């Protein structure tokens, strides 16, 4: 039997396992490795701090989404031996492979910032990129009387680049609904020169921050957290005071990538931006947050990559030239509070533009425009995630590469409300 091994049973790994089970020749055996027995709907972490989602809606058993024909191995990965096509687990198990897919994702590393991971961690300093962090922050916000709320990004890249903005917008809505918005000063602190990575979206999202009275502090490259005086300090000496710090710490790839001697400084895997074949060895591929691609680390990107990577895996085992099709396509809902959201659609080279999605002239979703329909679209995505995306089912009318159907070439100057 030929062996295809997937490292990681998160979004990317689970999608790939289900895609490949349907198309690989019968002589191929699929195995997938993950240390966690629980699969999390990570977009739900954004809603948990505001009591907008129940815990049972974002947690399900990993094995529920791995068909019995696939060998699911629970264990922590120690390293990859690329020379001998083997993966070593910490429990001593050695797994051989003919084709390897790295889908080990990314995780927060608060220890990378001086003073962040100390006695105030999960007390006055919180993350919402983990289930534990989001749950603890929910408990804090339930009783928090108000003060200086700082939403902070340590450095890029991060998983789901719009999530900190969404948190800020939802916080505005949350405190308004509690009747204490006037007691809360919200500041958005970012290492970027604006609100987002794409200039046109930055202009539009920056307008929303102003509209919601959220102060923007750009170009802030954090050096340390001063927990005694409740300040974050950047390398230029600029200081921002907080009573409650909600931070997105440094994001890093899996440590096993470093132990395997194959990653960059942040443990991301060097990967061809169009084929998803790694630059490490021909029979090793990577997908999703584990890659060093200049694309958003978001679930939609993993979804689009999976359809292209599935075909390229088939072409690789058949000895055919790989297709250079992935264009960095990302499709992201941005919650803006009060039952509204906007939608951005872009790729490596195309800025987000105004228009409708997915059908020209019809939509029903609007691009770069706040609407209730966009909010409903984001809410519906949780069902799509559990029932279609993870199971490797094609989502109708959504293409893996960016389509210009329904889009206006002239980019907007600001979001319409």
Please provide a written account of the structure.
The protein is an alpha/beta fold. It folds into 3 domains: 2-105 and 254-317, 3-Layer(bba) Sandwich (FAD/NAD(P)-binding domain); 110-251, FAD/NAD(P)-binding domain (3-Layer(bba) Sandwich), CATH 3.50.50.60; 327-417, no CATH class. It is built from 7 helices and 24 strands. It has helices at residues 11-23, 131-143, 163-178, 199-211, 255-259, 299-317, 372-389, and strands spanning 2-7, 28-34, 38-40, 59-61, 71-74, 77-81, 86-89, 94-96, 99-102, 106-108, 125-126, 147-153, 184-189, 215-217, 222-226, 231-234, 239-241, 244-248, 251-253, 284-286, 330-337, 340-346, 355-359, 363-367. The strands form 8 sheets. Strands 5-2-1-9-20 form a 5-stranded parallel β-sheet, covered by helices on one side. Strands 11-18-12-13-14 form a 5-stranded parallel β-sheet. The chain has a 3-stranded antiparallel β-sheet with strand order 6-7-8. α4 (199-211) links the parallel β13 and β14 (215-217). α1 (11-23) packs parallel to α6 (299-317). 45% of the residues are buried.
In short:
By secondary structure, this protein is α/β, with parallel strands linked by helices. It contains seven helices and 24 strands. Strands 5-2-1-9-20 form a five-stranded parallel sheet, with helices on one face. A five-stranded parallel sheet has the order 11-18-12-13-14. A three-stranded antiparallel sheet has the order 6-7-8.
């Amino acid at each position: 039997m030929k062996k295809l091994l997937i490292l990681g049973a998160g979004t990317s790994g689970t999608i790939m396992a289900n895609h490949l089970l349907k198309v690989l020749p019968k002589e191929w055996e699929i195995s997938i490795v993950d240390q966690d027995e629980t699969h999390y709907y990570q977009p739900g972490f954004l809603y948990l701090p505001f009591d907008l989602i129940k815990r049972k809606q974002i947690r399900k058993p990993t094995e529920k989404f791995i068909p019995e024909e696939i060998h699911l191995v629970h264990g922590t990965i120690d390293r990859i031996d690329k020379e001998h096509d083997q993966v070593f687990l910490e429990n001593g198990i050695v797994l051989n492979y003919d084709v390897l897919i790295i889908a080990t994702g990314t995780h927060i590393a608060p220890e990378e910032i001086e003073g962040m991971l100390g006695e105030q961690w999960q007390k006055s300093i919180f993350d919402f990129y983990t289930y534990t962090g989001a749950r603890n922050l929910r408990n804090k916000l339930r009783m928090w009387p108000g003060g200086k709320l700082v939403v902070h990004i340590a450095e890029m890249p991060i998983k789901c680049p719009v999530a900190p903005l969404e948190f800020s917008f939802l916080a505005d809505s949350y405190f308004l609904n509690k009747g204490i918005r006037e007691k809360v000063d919200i500041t958005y602190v970012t290492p970027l020169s604006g609100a987002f990575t794409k200039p046109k979206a930055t202009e539009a999202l920056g307008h929303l921050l102003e509209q919601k009275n959220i102060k923007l502090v750009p170009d802030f490259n954090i050096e340390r957290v001063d927990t005694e005086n409740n300040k974050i300090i950047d390398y230029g000496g600029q200081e921002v005071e907080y009573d409650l710090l909600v931070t997105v710490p440094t994001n890093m790839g899996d440590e096993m990538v470093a132990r395997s001697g194959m990653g960059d400084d942040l443990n991301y895997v060097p990967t061809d931006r169009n084929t998803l074949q790694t630059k490490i060895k021909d029979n090793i591929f990577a997908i999703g947050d584990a890659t060093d691609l200049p694309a958003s680390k978001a679930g939609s990107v993993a979804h689009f990559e999976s359809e292209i990577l599935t075909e390229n895996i088939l072409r690789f085992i058949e000895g055919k030239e790989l297709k250079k099709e992935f264009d960095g396509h990302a499709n992201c809902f941005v919650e803006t509070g009060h039952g509204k959201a906007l939608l951005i659609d872009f790729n490596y080279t195309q800025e987000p533009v105004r228009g409708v999605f997915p059908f020209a002239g019809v939509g029903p979703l609007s691009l770069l425009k706040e609407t209730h329909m966009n909010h409903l679209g984001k809410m519906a995505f949780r069902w799509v995630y559990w029932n279609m995306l993870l199971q490797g089912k094609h989502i109708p009318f959504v293409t893996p590469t960016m389509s210009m159907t329904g889009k206006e070439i002239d980019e907007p100057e600001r979001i319409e409300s």
